[in-house]
From TrEMBL:
Highest classification ranks of the organism: Bacteria, Pseudomonadati, Planctomycetota, Planctomycetia, Pirellulales
Record keywords, A-Z: Oxidoreductase
PANTHER family (alphabetical): DEHYDROGENASE/REDUCTASE SDR FAMILY MEMBER 7B (PTHR44196), DEHYDROGENASE_REDUCTASE SDR FAMILY MEMBER 7B (PTHR44196:SF1)
Domain annotation Ketoreductase: ranges: 7-191
GO molecular function, one term: oxidoreductase activity
Domain of life (superkingdom): Bacteria
UniProt KW Metal-binding keyword: no
Originating organism: Blastopirellula sediminis
Protein name as it appears in the record: SDR family NAD(P)-dependent oxidoreductase
Length: 280
């Protein structure tokens, strides 16, 4: 999409973090905005004055876990604009903890917000996006959509899913003028970690020095829409980690094996003890 000025964009999870920064930068580019979130108070703070524009954005209060609410939000959007040019599936939630300790509700929450909601929004809006000569979908995945760590299985499932979903849509609709990007940031300094569900007491907030800013993520998002980029890794950590994962996939297996106490017992403590015993 060469020219984004004057286009109509729906941004989910716009009340805070990356979604908020994307909304602010799109507003500066002259894009008309529909902002969706379940956090009504914070969403409504993102008004015309905060965005530095004349016309009020359309605020859609919607819990993305609920399919009926998604359908209502889409109906409201279409009544308002009769179409849409850009869909940014950004809203997300995280979980940190052992997979076997996850409840059914926790699985449903992560899958619902991070994966099923983007699929449903895309399903409902595709006819309108395809009716435009140029349109674009951005799915906010993560570096965790390309490499897996421990204790985040549900999150990985959704982020890997979004990468596959994006690539399949891109292949299917390349000829129709629909661009699709999967955006894969490393750690970003937002409220995601403090709002995260966790089954452990461990501090999950990554240190500031490995985090990028949500403003930087937003600027790369707009560039990706303009250039119709397939995948965008945001930040040095995402680029490095995903590169290593591609060229040396076994390294991550070895790393996680190293952290297993049995591994230490069998491969390190036992041989050292044998050595000491044999010398005495
Ligand atoms: P955030 O917590 O600041 O923003 C998430 C937004 O989604 C919030 O405004 C929240 O109210 C909204 N949301 C959550 N559940 C919702 C629901 N049921 N219905 C409607 N809205 C809901 O977090 P952040 O970091 O801005 O996350 C945005 C996206 O970026 C997420 O998809 C996340 O997975 C992804 N991401 C974040 C990274 C990070 O380090 N912060 C790294 C890589 C990807």
């Amino acid at each position: 999409m060469r020219r984004i000025h004057g286009k109509r964009a729906l941004v989910t999870g716009a009340a805070s973090g990356i979604g908020r920064s994307i909304a602010m930068q799109l507003a500066r580019e002259g894009v008309h905005l529909a902002l969706l979130d379940h956090n009504e108070v914070e969403l409504k703070q993102l008004d015309a004055k905060a965005l530095g524009i004349d016309a009020e954005p359309l605020h859609l209060i919607c819990d993305l876990r609920d399919r009926e609410q998604i359908q209502e939000a889409v109906q409201q959007l279409i009544r308002h604009w009769q179409g849409v040019d850009i869909l940014i599936n950004n809203a997300g939630v995280a979980y940190y903890g052992s997979t076997h300790a996850m409840s059914q509700d926790e699985w449903q929450q992560i899958l619902g917000v991070n994966l099923l909601a983007p699929v449903e929004l895309t399903r409902l809006l595709l006819p309108y996006l395809l009716a435009e000569p140029e349109a674009h979908i951005v799915n906010v995945s993560s570096m965790y959509g390309h490499l897996a760590t421990n204790r985040s299985t549900a999150y990985h499932l959704t982020k890997f899913g979004l990468v596959g979903f994006s690539e399949a849509l891109r292949a299917e609709y390349a000829r129709s003028g629909l661009g699709v990007t999967s955006l894969c940031p490393g750690f970003v300094a937002t409220g995601l970690f403090s709002s995260m569900t966790s089954s452990t007491d461990r501090e999950a907030q990554p240190p500031a020095w490995i985090c990028t800013s949500s403003e930087y993520v937003a600027s790369l998002t707009i560039r990706a829409i303009r250039r119709n980029q397939r995948t965008v890794f945001v930040g040095w950590l995402a680029r490095l980690a995903c590169f290593v994962r591609r060229v040396w996939p076994g390294l991550f297996d070895q790393f996680y094996r190293l952290r297993r106490p049995e591994f230490f017992k069998r491969r390190i403590f036992a041989p050292v003890r044998q050595l000491i015993d044999s010398r005495s």
